[in-house]
Amino acid sequence: MKTQPSLLETVSKFNTEEMCVRHFEKIRWPKGLRCVRCDSDKARRMTGEAAKRFLYWCPDCRYQYTVTVGTIFHDSKIPLIKWFLAIYMICSERKESLRFN
Question: What are φ and ψ of residue 69, in 5° steps?
Answer without folding.
Answer: -60, 135
